[in-house]
Amino acid sequence: MKIVRFRHRGSTLEGEVLDPKTLRTPNGSRVPLADAKLLAPCEPTKLVCVGRNYADHAAELGNPVPEEPLLFLKPPSAVIASGEEISYPEYSRLLHFEGELAVVISERCKNVPAHEAPHVIRGYTAMNDVTARDAQRADQQWTRGKCFDTSAPLGPWLETELDLLDVAIRTTVNGTRRQEGSTRDLVFRVPHLVAYASRVMTLEPGDVIATGTPAGVGELRIGDTVEVEVEGVGVLCNTVVRGSSEAAIG
Q: Over the stretch 123-132, which tens digit does the pLDDT of each residue have?
């Protein structure tokens, strides 16, 4: 089942994707996808991201493969939905895409054994771990490079059933394939990641574990349209726009 969050006629709803053009609301009515505004498929308290979880990606950036999962966090303010705009940070000159499979947690949990991980997973979606690579390198830690607003596009919806052994992950920019990998090449598999993260911190409903990106990451420019496709889930699509340093909070 594909679970979708969307706005329709002033209401925020959670429904089901019936086919590529139709959604079904909780009361059973049908809504054309074209008439709905897609929202991020979950509302996380945090996004637990995994770095260097594909050996080929670690190699392309000149990094060793970690002996244990390398975790970092993104805040909820980084999340945007498919169709929304990625804002190019004004302090960066090198923005990268990183297409990933993301896991969404179903319930509050702590110290989950790996064999019980499927019981605390609500579903799977696509994520783009957008990264200001120059800021990441300059700071020698990842907050400014990874946590800016709009740096975590998620969507388009949740797939509740997915065979994780060999899921293709593809990223295209302006229609050109730039990245292709498979979950068969994960260094640390999803159950291990859920168990490991839940030993470190309590996971809440809607929290995200982003499982890492395969090789092929590359540059995004203002005006680019970037799509992350997770096989069996769907296509996450966002366009890059110029960021603003003006205050937006009044």
A: 999 999 999 9
